Amino acid sequence: MAIPRKLSANSKQFDGRIQNSFTIYNEVDKGKKRFSFCFLQDFTILATESLLLLPISSFFFLLHAISNGS
User: Fold this and answer.
1) What stretches pass through the bilayer (predicted)?
2) Range(s) of the domain holding residue 59
């Protein structure tokens, strides 16, 4: 399993709502492989490039499921 090397986060306005995005760089690939999670204020995930980082991606999808009441 890949160990996160670097985690960056930012927040910006998107269509009148706050968009939060996280980018995780893979230690194995020396920062060349990116895992991006992007979701709006209501925790709706807009785009996910890869789900190979299971603990982190599972957390975001759990958060997504809880926020949608499923």
Assistant:
1) 43-66
2) 4-68
